[in-house]
Amino acid sequence: MEGKWEEVFNYVSMRAYPPGSDKAQKYSVKRYASKFTVKEDELFYGEKRAVKSREEARTLFSEFHISPDGKHMGIARTRRAMCNRFYWLGMTVEIDKWVLECEVCKMKPLSFAHVKTEKKSPKSRMIQRRLFSKVSKMVEEAKKLAGYAAVDNHVKDNQAVGIGSGSTIVHAVKRLAERVKEENLNVVCVPTSFQARQLILENCLPLSDLDRHPELDVAIDGADEVDSELNLIKGGGGCLTQEKIVASCAKSFIVIADYRKDSSALGEQWKKGIPVEVIPMAYVPVSRAIQSQFGGSADLRMAVSKAGPVVTDNGNFLLDWRFDQEHNWSAVNTTIKMMPGVVDTGLFINLAERVYFGMEDGTVKIRDKNML
Predict the structure, then answer these.
(1) Residue ranges of the chain whose pLDDT lies below 50
(2) What are phi and psi of 35, to 5 degrees?
(3) d(Cα 88, Cα 284) in Å, to the nearest integer?
(4) Are the CB atoms for 259 and 135 separated by under 8 Å?
(5) Does the annotation count 243 as an active-site position?
(6) Is the CB of residue 284 less than 8 Å from the CB of residue 290?
(7) What's the pLDDT score for residue 66?
(8) How far apart are CA 327 and CA 94, in angstroms?
(9) Residue 364 · residue 24 · CB < 8 Å
(10) Which residue of 117, 217, 290, 358 could cross-link 145, Cys pair, CB 3.0 to 4.6 Å?
(11) Which member of 225, 243, 277, 353 is catalytic?
(12) What pLDDT, in 10s, does the model give residues 305-317?
């Protein structure tokens, strides 16, 4: 938190951006700092003092969670006591979490903090729903930040733009539609899936395809996971082949994701495996070949709302290969693609130019291949 508050403090007090900030980072700082003021060299969110570090937040929690008569207050009272005076991003989620982890509170048989009872009270369930809702909102805001940053920094007039698939791309398309309307941009959009096509049409953007625009200026898409070397796992939504085709046709492939997708190594965050699109008749031989050569398990992805397997936009099946060790991903990708019956894999190697991660604290983190 300390670094973030320093950026906000410098902007509010001196209109100064962090050294070396690009357009996306400046936009993020300015947008976030607009909610704050400086009083007597302290940063305030409204009338609430901004807490500078996680350590300070935890110390304040310890002070406020114990009432004057020595009793441990529950979630609601602890929240009220702290939220009336202090602020840090995600504080209610953390306060709830710390109360639930409090060893003293766990010993109270009917305490709302005692969530591991056989039958949860209505208030316990309500608290858990609120926690889930807050985290969901934080993730959605992070996706929006990444999508807006990518569109603002990479889409220009008279461009052909590849539009990816998934939940994060929704925000990018909305931002693109805003810019087209506000700036009268002339762009055409090439979709990577049926979902992407519908998004383009719903937002009244010009629809095209690779027949008419085989060379794209930029493609923007999400990812299931991104490692430190910009290797990606994609295909959780089943659109990997068309996504890879569109990405390969773009002069610049830009990835947008929330903070949960940022990993040092593939498999660290994403536990559902690497998708492999296969011709239906080949799914058993391909599954056996992958498991034989690389270990792990390669299982046919089954549909949720229909009987039988998931069927891609291309009419194929998907295997999800859950690997159990690190690999040379470039070599693995090449080997699997050479197996008869394989259409493509969800490994995107040496394709991404830049990744924008929307972070929990309202900033945008950038990973660029030129900085590796």
Answers:
(1) 109-118
(2) -90, -5
(3) 52
(4) no
(5) yes
(6) no
(7) 72
(8) 36
(9) yes
(10) 358
(11) 243
(12) 888 999 999 999 9
